[in-house]
Amino acid sequence: MQIESSEIRAKRFEMRFVHAPGGFLVDLKKYLEEKKAIVDFALEGHFPKDGEISSSLHKAIRHSLFAGGKRIRPIFSMAAFEAAGGRGDVILPLACALEMIHTYSLIHDDLPSMDNDDFRRGRPTCHKVFGEGVALLAGDALLTEAFRLMTDRTASGDPEQDGWLIVDIVNHVARAAGISGMVGGQVVDIESEGKDVDLPTVQFIHTHKTGAMILISIQIGAKLARAREEPLRALTHYGERVGLAFQIADDILNVEGEAAVLGKSTGSDRSRGKATYPGLLGLEESKRRARELVGQAVDGLNLFGTEADPLREIARFIIERKH
């Protein structure tokens, strides 16, 4: 389903950076809120209306897709797109597709056959409300819809968009989401529960289960902006490190975060014998490594000017967040 570009322009709060007079990003909270609002509006436009699909499926998908997520992956793609010189709304269908894939993964992660979680983002998980069968199919539907949206030539509002570029992007997203990325990492995560694992195994799980989709979010923003080799390499360097730092921060929050703030139970990693950085290295060393990764990620953006300030600030936010 297409959103008219005029509608987007009216509601998108002007896709812009928030800069102080000196040129540096000073209000990350405002930036994230504005980008989230843009993504939410675009998702509403691309999401099938009630009556176009089964009512129970429609409600189950909406229950999870519009549960108040931070939209970090779409925002990463938009920030990278803009840092690489991209302008306009052409990134939005891809950004929305990333959020659909992320939401599908959360629905499936919460199932009794996986993590068996009762709450997600402060509300009952999809299967607790709609049953396991519908929740499973809601995840399947979101994954399928994501690839339909990425390949919909009318969704971007740019009929002259390079078809081969989109094919390349879809190929890389499929790798990041599938057996070479998120799904592959999830399998090793399940198989490692309750076992003594080494650091390379934990790093494999984190870089594949979580890091791969964060990295591809950044890369597709750069690719769609037609970034040249050096900027693309710099953004890849950033994405690899920030993706791992993001999951280490999640591990830390699972240990010392507040359930009321997180919107889900804490301490579950330890009770399930999950392979995590704090479980293997302890909290303080895990925090040190996360800070080190963020420092490396930010240093890798030296090629860019203030146009990459949102990426710099988001990297720092990752290890400071409380949820």
How would you describe the shape? Answer: globular
Structural class: mainly alpha
CATH architecture: Orthogonal Bundle
- How many domain units? 1
Helix-strand topology string: HHHHHEEHHHHHHHHHHH
Description:
By secondary structure, the chain is mainly alpha-helical. The chain has a single domain, classed as Farnesyl Diphosphate Synthase. It contains 16 helices and two strands. The chain has helices spanning 5-11, 28-46, 55-65, 72-83, 92-110, 126-130, 132-150, 163-177, 182-192, 199-224, 229-256, 259-262, 268-271, 277-281, 283-299, 309-318, and strands at 119-120, 123-124. A two-stranded antiparallel ribbon has the order 1-2. Strand 1 (119-120) and strand 2 (123-124) form a beta hairpin. Helix 2 packs across helix 4 and helix 8 (163-177) runs antiparallel to helix 10.
SSE order and pairing:
Layout lengths: L4 H7 L16 H19 L8 H11 L6 H12 L8 H19 L8 E2 L2 E2 L1 H5 L1 H19 L12 H15 L4 H11 L6 H26 L4 H28 L2 H4 L5 H4 L5 H5 L1 H17 L9 H10 L5
Antiparallel strand pairs: 1-2
Helix pairs in contact: 2-4, 2-5, 3-7, 4-5, 4-10, 4-16, 5-7, 8-10, 9-10, 10-11, 11-15, 15-16
